[in-house]
Design a protein that fits this description.
The protein starts with 5 loop residues before the first helix and ends with a helix. With about 120 residues, the chain is mainly alpha-helical. It has eight helices and no strands. About 65% of the residues lie in helices and about 0% in strands. Helix 2 (about 25-30) crosses helix 3 (about 35-40).
């Protein structure tokens, strides 16, 4: 018999990797400690309903997809939205890190980014 946690872990890993995020980043964003999130991705545990909700929002996937209840094959490929340039994993990661900076460090980052963009 198949473990009911496996589809969630498999889909979560695929979505996380598609977004270019680490397990630690996703765990922090949804309020779990990294070892617990790691167990979730490995199919060793099921998330609580609130954690499942936060995970779906963070990974931008429906609960149906995360639980493996969506059709596979060409149907899923046809409905996959094209990523926008501003959705590049590197830009999302940079924005996430920039939000953690104090005003002085953020100003320094902006100065460096402006110099690199020239």
């Amino acid at each position: 018999m198949r473990n009911s946690a496996s589809p969630i872990g498999t889909e979560a890993r695929a979505a996380r990797q598609h977004l270019g995020l680490t397990q630690a980043e996703v765990a922090e964003r949804i309020g779990l400690v990294h070892p617990v999130y790691n167990r979730l991705e490995r199919g060793k545990m099921l998330p609580s309903v609130p954690s499942l909700y936060r995970l779906c929002r963070e990974l931008r996937v429906s609960p149906e997809k995360l639980m493996g209840l969506t059709p596979t094959g060409d149907v899923r490929k046809a409905t996959k939205p094209k990523p926008k340039e501003e959705d590049a994993p590197e830009l999302r990661r940079l924005l996430h890190l920039a939000r953690k900076l104090d005003a002085e460090d953020l100003a320094a980052l902006l100065h460096v980014a402006s110099a690199l963009a020239r």
